[in-house]
Amino acid sequence: MNTKSSTLILFALGGIFAANAQVKMTYTVQYKGAMSAMFAKNQTAGKYAVKPLLAKPHLYALGQLDKLTGEITVWDGKLRISKVNGDIVETTTPKDAKAVFLVWSYVSQWRELTIPDEVKTLKQLEMFVAQKAVQAGHNTAKPFPFLLKGTVAKGDFYVINLAPDGTPHSREKHDAAKAHFPLENDAVNILGFYSTKHKGIFTHHTSNMHLHVVTSDGEKMGHLDDLVPGSTLRLYLPKL
How many CB atoms lie within 10 A of CB 173? Predict the structure, then answer.
């Protein structure tokens, strides 16, 4: 996607935001806690239980595990956590987990969309997701969930693995606690939340998206840091 194409997308987004402002959504995005509180207030304890949210079907959620010792992903009501064990990722499906922060939504039906070959980076994907959400009638002034399914040609994900040392948490400590793992031609399910207004809450301060990836075999799961879409990767937006 070249600069001209990117400019056209941004122009189109700006022109349609107002028209979509009154669209009634079939879902809501909710959250508890905030990523920024880990640094500003040293809040790394898991205060938010996932189990009560599982009482309602079709839950999609992501967050980080109590004391920043792993990642949490819920895909269509199935809770999965990942932790680091030596040089590998271990994923389990417990009955409950407590999150430092958590963002979630309930979606029962999704609309599939093709991702064009021109989308080759995570930033281009972010722009494409926003563009398609606007075109589909979503109120993109508010946060929305989305899915990606298919193959990732290349990618990188991490699992947070903090070793407490008694000192206040910081961005430097947080970055150092990320155990990174590669993706290459992996079949994946990716859960994402998009928002332009929640940086430092449930998206990072440099992005409008927060993404968790789960390989189709369930053996790898974590925060998606980068990707190159494979030829079969598809975007899914909630049906309105």
Answer: 18
User: Considering the chain, what percentage of its residues have pLDDT values greater than 90?
Assistant: 87
Whats the size of the chain, residue-wise? 240
| Single-letter code of the amino acid located at 135 | Q
H/E element, 60: strand 59-65
Structure tokens at 131: 């563009």
For the whole prediction, is pTM greater than 0.70? yes
Nearest 10 degrees: CA dihedral of 100, 158, 27, 206? 90
Q: What's the sign of the alpha-carbon dihedral 238, 227, 86, 179?
A: negative
CATH number at residue 173: 3.30.1330.80
Residue 124 has pLDDT above 80, yes or no: yes
Domain range for 174: 3-238
How far apart, in whole angstroms, are the C-alpha atoms of residue 5 and residue 173?
38
30 contacts 103 by C-beta, under 8 angstroms: yes
Q: How far is CA 216 from each of CA 18, 55, 79, 232, rounded to the nearest angstrom?
A: 38, 24, 14, 14
Domain tally, the chain: 1
How far apart CA 125 and CA 48 sit, in angstroms, is: 30
What region, left, alpha or beta, does residue 13 occupy, with left being phi > 0 and alpha being psi -120 to 50 degrees? alpha
pLDDT in tens, 42-92: 999 999 999 999 999 999 999 999 999 999 999 999 999 999 999 999 999
Amino acid at 219: E
Sign of CA pseudo-dihedral 28, 31, 35, 37: positive
